[in-house]
Every structure is written in C-alpha cells, then in structure tokens.
Write a structure and sequence with these properties.
mainly alpha; about 300 residues
Length: about 300
C-alpha cells in the first residue's frame, strides 16, 4: 500500500479514535446489560447499529454494490452473517457474565492469536518466531487472567472465559473469510449484511421472549452510546486509518484497547480488576504488541516459518 508519509499521522489518529471508540463499547454494553434482558438489548443495539450503517452505506454510495452483486456472493454473505451472529451473541453473553469489562477485553486479546493461526492454515500466510512468541505470551496472559486457582476442571476458569474464546475464534474466522473475499464487496457491505441479519434475529428473539419494549432511559442511553461508538465511530475510524497506514500498523494502536477499556471502566464503574488479572492483562497486551510489531515489520527476528 502506497501512502503519503506526511499524512501517516492521520492514520494513527484514526486508529487511536477507533480503538478508544471500540473500548467504550465494552463499558456501555456492560452498563446496558446490567439493566435489561439480552433480547431487549439486542433489539435496540442492533436496530441502531443497522440504521447507522445503512445510512452510511447510502450516503457513501456503497449501497449500489448490492445491485451489482453476483448471486454466488449471496451464499457467502449468509455464511458470514451466521458466523458474525454467533460471535456477537457470545461477546455480549461474555460481557454480561464477567463482572469487569476490562477483564473481557484482556481475554479478547486472543483474537489476533486466532487470526494469525487461521491465516497460516487457510490463507497460507507465513509467520516469524517473534510472532509465535507474542502469541504464546497472549495465551499465557489469558490463562493468568482466567485461572481461578481451582484444580476442578469445571471451576478451573472464571465464568465467561469459554464464551470469550468462542467469540474470538468466530470473530477471527469472520475476518479471515472477509480478507479472502474483500475484492468481491466492500467492508461496508459485509458489515451492513451482518447487522441486518443479526437485527432480524434479535427482533424475532425479542418477539418470542415476550419482553416489553419499554426500558429505563439510562439503559437506552448506554445502549445507544455503545451502538454509536462501537458499530459506527469505531468502524469508520478504523476504515479511514487504512487509507493512510497499513492495517498491521493500525493493529499496533488497536492492541492498546485493553488499557483504554481499563481506564474507561474505572471512570464509569469506579472499580478495577484483581491484581493478578491486571498482571495477566499486561502480559496479553505485551504479547499482542510483539505480534503486531513483528507483522508490521518494525521488529524482525527470525525467518518466516
């Protein structure tokens, strides 16, 4: 990707804004899920997310891609929607199950590990030993965060750990498929497709659940802020960052997400994770930074394997 070096700072600013926006999603969604049922949360969150992304697709002109879309792409979109549905459901279930959103974010650093692993398996991408070391650090940190000290397998990890693992694996699978097929449609349409199907799912789930559409005002505000920052500001900012810097360099900034979640969660809820979880979070962040810097070519040790 050829970029104007004098404008690279814009890419890092966009990446930073996107990272902070996505970090706030953890906090606002946790606050919303503390007050309403998952069916109510999903209805409002994905309803607003779909509307925001639809408006962006229309005003950016990307909506025209749908008319020119080949039929064989429809099956791909359905598969992606199903994967993204599972990813989002497990994400918000994990947010609800784990008391501190910063812990969920630290565990979410398994995403680049899965993404790199799947890239090696399915996209035939190559890796360095430094990337492998970063991945091992991220896994070790996730273990430190989630380990309860119990030897009983059923109580080995804190509740919600399995949900985060499933979420990150599904999210990485989604990203690998999009990366392999990115020339067929723009990321805007991929995202709009997922939001549309997920909204329809939660609309059906809401009707089936029999829940009321009336929710507390502050819960609605939290959900709206989560949808705005997570599915709109964060998404657009990261897209724009790729115009000025390589995706791997944008990922270096994004690897700091856990720190921002920690700060925002403390300001919003007034509490911090356990000391051992902070240490584990620091290890996962270090691992992700090592991986992303190696992938960006900033640090080179070892040959591609």
């Amino acid at each position: 990707m050829k970029t104007n070096q004098s404008e690279e700072w814009k890419g890092y600013v966009y990446a930073l804004v996107g990272t902070i926006a996505f970090s706030s999603l953890y906090v606002f969604s946790k606050a919303g899920l503390n007050q309403v049922d998952l069916a109510q949360f999903g209805l409002y969150y994905f309803g607003m997310a779909f509307l925001l992304n639809l408006l962006f697709a229309v005003f950016s002109g990307r909506i025209r891609e749908i008319n020119a879309m080949p039929r064989k792409v429809l099956r791909l979109l359905l598969i992606l929607a199903a994967i993204d549905l599972g990813s989002n459901i497990t994400f918000f279930l994990a947010i609800r199950a784990i008391s501190d959103p910063s812990v969920t974010s630290f565990l979410g650093n398994l995403f680049p590990v899965f993404l790199t692993s799947l890239g090696i398996i399915f996209l035939k991408e190559r890796f360095t030993w430094l990337e492998a070391l970063g991945g091992l650090l991220a896994i070790a940190g996730a273990f430190v965060i989630s380990y309860t000290g119990e030897l009983n397998w059923q109580k080995l990890f804190i509740p919600g750990t399995g949900l985060v693992v499933i979420n990150t694996l599904l999210a990485a699978t989604f990203s690998v498929i999009v990366k392999k097929n990115v020339q067929k449609l723009s990321p805007v349409i991929f995202n709009l497709n997922s939001n549309a199907w997920i909204f329809l799912f939660f609309l059906s789930y809401f009707i089936w659940s029999g829940q009321t559409a009336i929710i507390p005002t502050n819960a609605f505000v939290n959900i709206a802020l989560g949808a705005f920052f997570g599915s709109f500001v964060g998404l657009l900012s990261l897209y724009y960052s790729y115009r000025y810097i390589a995706a791997s360099r944008s990922s270096i900034v994004q690897s700091l997400k856990g720190i921002f979640v920690l700060i925002i969660a403390y300001l919003y809820f007034g509490n911090l994770p356990l000391a051992i979880q902070l240490w584990g979070g620091g290890i996962t962040i270090s691992g992700v930074i090592v991986m992303t810097m190696a992938q960006a070519g900033i640090v080179r040790i070892g040959k591609k394997g």
